[in-house]
Write a structure and sequence with these properties.
Function (chains A, B): Required for both de novo synthesis of the corrin ring for the assimilation of exogenous corrinoids. Participates in the adenosylation of a variety of incomplete and complete corrinoids.
Largest interface: A-B, 110 and 110 residues
Pfam families (chains A, B): Co_AT_N (PF12557), CobA_CobO_BtuR (PF02572)
Number of strands of chain A: 6
Largest sheet of chain A: 6 strands, parallel
Distance between the termini of chain A: 34 Å
Shape of chain A: globular
CATH superfamily of one domain in chain A: P-loop containing nucleotide triphosphate hydrolases
GO cellular component, one term (chains A, B): cytoplasm
Oligomer: homodimer
Helix content of chain A: 40-55%
Organism (chains A, B): Xanthobacter autotrophicus
CATH architecture of one domain in chain A: 3-Layer(aba) Sandwich
Pathway (chains A, B): Cofactor biosynthesis; adenosylcobalamin biosynthesis; adenosylcobalamin from cob(II)yrinate a,c-diamide: step 2/7
Strand order of the largest sheet of chain A: 3-2-4-5-1-6
Chain lengths: ~210, ~210
């Protein structure tokens, strides 16, 4: 085996400074934790041009499964393409309810009426899963795309999600989240694109992109 | 069951405009896909102040598991705290190799020498897993924190990761990624904090934060 990485030695003064700083930090941290008392089902939005929006949603689903909860997934846009996580969720049997309602990327279907009908069917499925009290977390994958292209009525979608039952967490993914959805959300993360391997000619690879 | 969301009707002219636009988009998309031919193990960095860095890394791990790959995880900072995903990965048996090498948050240990020693042990484990050819993806959770606090030698870490075997994907998470690591990476996503429920007094909840 190779050598472990070297880690610089610590002198007493440095150790004491570090301890003092961390004691202060711990006090702040403990106070902040104590101030937070509310429990609620969150409306979470993952948006932005960077990679990781759906991936983080499925990571949350995994965490919820680890905590014993059931998870529902409705995919609004992607069709057969993205299957790595779907395969993996099979290990959890009926604790993951998965519905791929989209018919593929909008530039593949090229059929607006069909895309709209598919989105309406997908949202009907969302209402059904929202009413299912065995489900703790709902992933609405690429719903932002369906909203952006006006496949669905924005006001109707936002008010439906805002009226979720108290314990239900909902994660919405996709670029260009609508401001009305952001306003209704509890947690919004913008995935920023700093650097992408596609720009360097690297192709989509199994286990990474799909 | 409740009514499906209304979706506006499409007239012929609108449908034709949409089709033409999407045909053009598909041509661009197909050309871009055709231009990307390189396959390589990626060095991926999830950084930034927003939520989702580790979550997206575990989502990638899940995707890789769905594609039949084995996954290694080394946690540099967090100790016993974050266990939802760890529990869930148990469903995949020895296809996930998990090492929690950190001794908890830096403000909990308050011991610089101990934190540095733990980081050095963790990186020795990373070298071991990098050499294991059965592993397709390696998650180095919160390595950025260990680098930020100079628990490890930055140059040594970056050159070790840059020298990974060709097929190995490595994901590094944590705030404040070092520019040298970003320079060496293929894919860098900055998770931006748009809105966080902690600010509204909501506490950390099982299945969401841990």
């Amino acid at each position: 085996m190779s050598e472990p990485v070297s880690s610089p030695a610590v002198d007493d003064a440095e150790a004491a400074r570090h301890r003092a700083k961390m004691e202060k930090r711990k006090a702040v941290q403990d106070r902040e934790v104590a101030e937070k008392t509310i429990e609620k089902g969150l409306l979470i939005v993952h948006t932005g041009p960077g990679k990781g929006k759906s991936t983080a949603a499925f990571g949350l689903a995994l965490r919820m499964l680890g905590r014993g909860g059931r998870v529902g997934v409705v995919q609004f846009i992607k069709g057969a393409w993205q299957t790595g996580e779907q395969e993996a969720f099979a290990a959890f049997g009926d604790r993951v309810v998965w519905h791929t309602m989209g018919e593929g990327f909008t530039w593949e279907t090229q059929d607006l009426a069909r895309d709209r009908a598919a989105a309406a069917r997908a949202f009907a499925k969302v209402r059904e899963l929202m009413a299912d009290e065995t489900i703790a977390l709902l992933v609405l994958d690429e719903l932002n795309i369906a909203l952006r292209y006006e496949y669905l009525d924005l006001g109707e979608v936002v008010s439906t999600l805002a009226a979720r039952r108290p314990g239900l967490h909902v994660v919405v993914t996709g670029r260009n989240a609508k401001p009305e959805l952001v306003a209704a959300a509890d947690l919004v993360t913008e995935m920023g694109l700093v650097k992408h391997h596609f720009s360097a000619g690297v192709k989509a690879q199994a286990g990474i992109e799909f």
